[in-house]
Design a protein that fits this description.
The structure holds three protein chains of three kinds. Chain B has helices at 42-50, 74-79, 97-106, 117-130, 148-162, 178-191, 206-210, 231-239, 242-248; strands spanning 2-12, 17-27, 31-35, 55-64, 67-68, 82-85, 92-96, 141-142, 166-170, 197-202, 215-220, 223-228. By secondary structure, chain B is of the alpha/beta class. In chain B, the strands form three sheets. Chain B has a six-stranded mixed β-sheet with strand order 6-9-10-3-11-12, sandwiched between helices. A four-stranded antiparallel β-sheet of chain B has the order 2-1-4-5. In chain B, helix 5 (148-162) packs parallel to helix 6. The N and C termini of chain B lie far apart (39 Å). The chains are: A alpha/beta, B alpha/beta, C alpha/beta. The A-C interface holds A 15-17, 20-21, 240, 256-257, 259, 269, 271-302 and C 68-69, 368, 371, 381, 383, 385-413.
Chain lengths: 339, 249, 469
């Protein structure tokens, strides 16, 4: 993959299926313009142990889901990023936090390498200033037997925007669990490619998001099974109020010979407003056999019976709705805790 | 004319040996019981005899009425007269009991010959009635959504319909209540004849009160450890399988 | 002496099948204004239709192939290498002896009647259905049902058909729609008057002639208020044709309270690109059901749609696809909920055999302002071999907080324990596989009219015998 020519790939447009429903003529174009004056973001590690140190490293291309051109532009502008290398066998109960505050237009590149047999809980926190834009390229490599529990918290404000490309590679018996949450971002697009490359690898991708006002969250996921005997699960839950829009694209791809695959993806949306919109694209591409693959997508309003039950116990309507909204998202975190 | 097993060794494909030299002779007209603790390999024996693809025979021979069973595919063994009432009968969605049995019977006819449909349904209803099965079961998908007891009854229905020369009942009593056990046993006993043999695999004495065996074998660590008469059943009922462990020690 | 039955060669070979041809009308290769004039002149069509076709031609030329989403296989289509109008004015000079033995054998195994065999093999293009179905036609005429070909429909019954012609599937809808609008010939135009409920299904082969199963057939069915009908096209027996591109358009209009069921069984030879657009418009309290089975063709792209235009309209798609070596079945369904209280249901099952690839592609959309809508979609795929492929590409859009939309999909194999169980009862592996596969689609096969469902089951038996036995 060469990145010398930043104009090699055309910007995403209406014919780009990976941007279907994602209004690429608006968002991809705006992002490309913003990237022209992007700067590298600061990244602050909190309580990093000596066995997990942040060092500068060269930026590298990642697999995207329809945004090759945008990634090329990112790489053309900012050549360096950070690398968090976790030593083999490190066992750490307490979470490690990487915190950054976003101002203007910033680019952040992070590479996390979790050594063989290590176990880590990593929290990435992005706090967005008004009108800020963060473009994030993140790559997670899990060595054999490594376990990574990853929380990605996007804490937005005002008109903040986020565009994130993540890539996660799980090798033999590696276990990966991520929980991403987006709040108060005017627009966010997250492309996440998970690749399971050796037997015994297992991943659980979780996301829980509350969308309100005119916010738009555009999530694209790929679960790539390139080895036999791997397991992946994805659960993405959104609640929508006001004029919010949620787009979910998911694809389980089982490569030829990746037999004995066990994969599942689920996108569930709770619609709380007559003006909110959900687009759901749960896909499967199965090129092997002896697989167990399924997906589900459901979009529904609050259960009227449940609402009535809460009201009958004296809980005001608005509060009852909020309680059900919270309950809808609560099990996602629970599943993260249990991993 | 009988089922003859000689020095049978078998393992899970690419795994450990489970049958470690089984010798067994079930002459026609006799009912033999195999008892044994959990994990002794008695269910494996039934699967290996029927040619389950998960197992590999590493040594030994099995003959049914002089025919080399081990050389045959699972379906050929069935057509040769071997029947297994499964411990865990498999669900076959979308395929009705009636169509399934009909296909199985048709498979026993010479190529091109058709089954007399009227006679078949008449007989099916009669046998179902004897087993106390609701006629509606014939149009339900094979074992799908059946209770444990219903599945076991369905196995016996198939056995009665297919009229095997040698039938293996693998834990057929589990999941049956007393009434069902009585009805099922009556069905089996009605089939006992001078040209048919039975191998009854069970954990408990209960079933053997109804289907009285001629010979009793105790299975342990992949082979027949002891052979005796009906009194062996009572001995096990009283003392359990502990005596096997003592022998080990 | 026993007569051993030769196995049918791989399906690919069937596509090579061809006859010496002789057509009274042949517009030659490629599609241009002259081709259209040729078609219009041959059919004696009115000027408005000539203009209509030419406008469509311009659109067809302008529009690109939908390669950004469609299977890449269609890129191989060369529109200049296709003949767009063939009509056999004289009885064909084909001979039953020219039909390959495997084809004859297939007909025999399927139990296709002698007379129909000849037609299906393309030997007898003048299969005389007029006599066979004379009584039926008189019956229909008494009830005021119109059942004609498009040319007759648009000339003799212009006031009935023209208002809806090209309205459900507009000319610019996509490249293939434009193609069909430009080059259509053959097909059925049907009108069922208010309140008339037809107990007997209408069959495309009632008035079979060389045109009715043409390359660019055009069907328009209008069920007036409260009317009910079932229409069936195709058959399970393989259909051989020298034309490699088939791009039909089917428009259904169910006026308030009407019910239309449209049954298709497609079994083209494997050299055929079968790109079909089927869409129905369901008004208030109306119901449209597409019951679709795709067995043949090399590449099929077909997504029957229902636009739920009126309140409480109902839509359903029941779809079976079987993809064997060298076949791509890209099938699915679309449900557009444009009015409140509308409900829809999609059940799709596919079977991939050998190197076959079956894809489900679907769209469910709840438009803004449409309240209380419901959709349930279920796609199940069965893979028979390690090389088999299946895909699922649904797109779901829900506006507002009153719709319940649910999609489920699963991929599975025939369970080995299940096969062993059946083998233990004496069935060969092929028989067991055949039963299991039939069981997998059993509930959907039951949705087809009896004569189709029996043939479908037999066809699967044959397929299993050939690929496994």
């Amino acid at each position: 993959m060469h990145t010398h020519d930043s104009n090699a790939a055309p910007l995403p447009d209406r014919l780009n299926e990976d941007w279907r429903f994602g209004r690429p003529h608006v968002h991809a174009r705006e992002l490309a313009e913003a990237l022209e004056h992007a700067q590298a973001a600061e990244l602050r590690g909190i309580d990093l142990p000596s066995a997990a140190q942040l060092t500068p490293c060269a930026a590298e291309p990642l697999p995207t889901i329809g945004s090759e051109a945008l990634m090329q532009r990112v790489l053309a502008g900012v050549q360096f990023g950070h690398c968090l290398r976790v030593a083999d066998g490190l066992q750490r109960r307490e979470a490690i936090t990487l915190h950054s505050e976003v101002h203007g237009v910033q680019v952040q590149q992070l590479r996390v390498i979790v050594g063989a047999g290590a176990r880590l809980h990593l929290i990435e926190e992005h706090e967005y200033g008004e009108e800020s834009t963060l473009v994030c390229l993140r790559r997670y490599e899990l060595m054999p037997g490594a376990t990574l529990r990853l929380e990605q918290r996007e804490i937005g404000s005002g008109n903040a925007r986020a565009f994130c490309i993540s890539s996660c590679i799980c090798t033999e018996n590696a276990r990966f669990c991520s929980l991403s949450t987006h709040q108060d971002l005017a627009w966010a697009r997250h492309e996440c490619t998970l690749e399971l490359t050796a037997p015994g690898a297992e991943a659980l991708l979780l996301s829980a998001n509350r969308l309100r006002s005119e916010q738009c969250l555009d999530m694209r996921n790929r679960q790539l099974h390139s080895s036999p005997g791997c397991k992946s699960r994805l659960l993405c839950k959104n609640t929508l109020t006001d004029r919010a829009t949620a787009i979910f694209g998911g694809n389980i791809r089982v490569q030829p010979h990746a037999h004995d695959t066990d994969a599942y993806l689920s996108n569930l949306n709770l619609q709380l407003s007559p003006h909110a919109t959900v687009h759901s694209l749960p896909m499967l591409e199965i090129l092997a056999d002896r697989v167990r693959c399924s997906h589900g997508s459901a979009t529904a309003p609050v259960d009227a019976e449940q609402l009535f039950y809460l009201q009958s116990r004296g809980i005001p309507l608005a509060e009852a709705r909020r309680a059900l909204e919270e309950a809808f998202l609560a099990d996602v975190r629970l599943r993260f805790e249990q991993f | 004319m009988s089922l003859v097993i000689k020095n049978l060794h078998a393992c899970i494909k690419g795994g450990q040996e489970i049958l470690c030299g089984v010798d067994l002779d079930v002459p026609t007209g006799e009912v033999h019981a195999i008892m044994g603790p959990n994990g002794s390999g008695k269910s494996t024996l039934s699967k290996v005899l029927c040619g389950h693809p998960d197992y590999e025979v590493t040594a030994g021979a099995v003959e049914l009425n002089g025919q080399d069973l081990l050389a045959m595919s699972p379906d050929a063994r069935s057509r040769a007269g071997l029947f297994l009432a499964f411990q865990y009968p498999v669900e076959v969605p979308g395929v009705s009991n009636a169509n399934f049995l009909r296909a199985a019977l048709k498979a026993r006819l010479p190529e091109g010959e058709e089954l007399d449909a009227v006679a078949y349904y008449k007989r099916l209803r009669k046998v179902m009635n004897e087993l106390g099965m609701d006629p509606k079961f014939s149009s339900r998908a094979v074992n799908e959504g059946f209770s444990g007891g219903e599945k076991k009854r369905n196995e016996v229905l198939q056995m009665l319909m297919l009229e095997p020369l040698c039938a293996i009942l693998d834990e057929t009593d589990s999941g049956l209540d007393v009434d069902a056990l009585r009805i099922v046993s009556q069905g089996v006993n009605a089939m006992r004849s001078s040209f048919r043999s039975f191998l009854v695999i069970t954990h408990y004495k209960r079933l053997l009160d109804y289907i009285v065996p001629d010979v009793v074998h105790v299975f342990h660590q992949g082979r027949i450890e002891r052979t005796g008469g009906r009194d062996l059943v009572d001995y096990i009922e009283e003392h359990g399988f502990d005596f096997l462990k003592k022998e080990d020690a | 002496m026993s007569s051993t039955t030769p196995a049918i060669p791989p399906t690919d070979a069937r596509g090579d099948f061809s006859f010496p041809e002789k057509h009274a009308f042949d517009a030659g290769y490629g599609l241009n204004e002259a081709t259209i004039d040729y078609i219009c002149n041959a059919k004696g069509e009115p000027d408005w239709l000539r203009d209509f076709r030419k406008r469509a031609l311009a659109k067809f030329r302008d529009m690109p192939q939908p390669l950004h989403w469609a299977p890449q296989e269609i890129a191989a289509l060369d529109f200049d290498q296709i003949r767009y109008y063939l009509a056999q004015g004289t009885p064909a000079r084909k001979n039953w002896d020219d039909v390959p033995d495997d084809v004859k054998r297939t007909f025999e195994r399927l139990g296709v009647p002698e007379q129909e065999r000849a037609f299906l093999a393309g030997v007898d293009a003048q299969y005389d259905s007029e006599t066979a179905y004379k009584n039926m036609r008189e019956e229909l005429a008494k009830k005021g049902v119109i059942f004609v070909n498009p040319t007759e429909g648009l000339s003799a019954y212009e006031n009935i058909f023209r208002p809806w012609f090209g309205k459900v599937i507009p000319v610019g809808d996509n490249k293939y729609a434009a193609l069909n609008h430009a080059a259509f010939s053959g097909g059925s135009f049907i009108y069922v008057p208010k309140g008339v409920k037809l107990a007997q299904p209408l069959q495309a082969y009632f008035r079979i002639n060389s045109e009715s199963m043409g390359q660019f057939e055009r069907t328009l069915i209008i069920a007036d208020e409260g009317a009910e009908l079932m229409y069936m096209e195709g058959c399970t027996a393989p259909k051989y044709d020298t034309a490699t591109l088939h791009s039909g358009v089917v428009e259904l209009v169910a006026l308030p309270g009407a019910k239309i069921q449209y049954v298709t069984v497609q079994n083209w030879a494997t050299n055929v690109y079968n790109l079909v657009i089927q869409r129905g418009l369901a008004m208030r309290d109306a119901e449209i059901r597409w019951i679709d089975c795709n067995i043949g063709s090399g590449v099929t792209m077909k997504y029957p749609a229902v636009i739920l235009q009126g309140e409480r309209a109902r839509g359903e798609v029941v779809s079976i696809s079987i993809a064997r070596d060298g076949q791509l079945q890209d099938t699915g369904a679309r449900m557009i909920h444009a009015a409140s209280g509308t409900t829809s249901n999609i059940v799709a099952k596919s079977i991939s055999i050998g190197h076959g690839r079956a894809s489900y592609r679907g769209e469910v959309r709840v438009q803004p302002g449409a309240t209380g809508c419901r959709n349930h979609t279920e796609c199940d795929a069965l893979l028979l071999h390690a090389e088999s492929r299946t895909d699922t590409y649904p797109a779901i859009t829900v506006h507002g907080d009153s719709a319940a939309v649910q999609h489920e999909a699963s991929v599975s194999q025939v369970d080995e324990e299940m096969l062993f169980y059946m083998q233990q009862r004496g069935l060969t592996r092929a028989q067991a596989m055949s039963l299991a596969v039939n069981g997998f689609i059993n509930d959907l096969v039951n949705e087809f009219p009896m004569e189709y469902s029996v043939e479908l089951r037999r066809l699967i038996d044959m397929e299993m015998e050939d690929s496994i036995g």
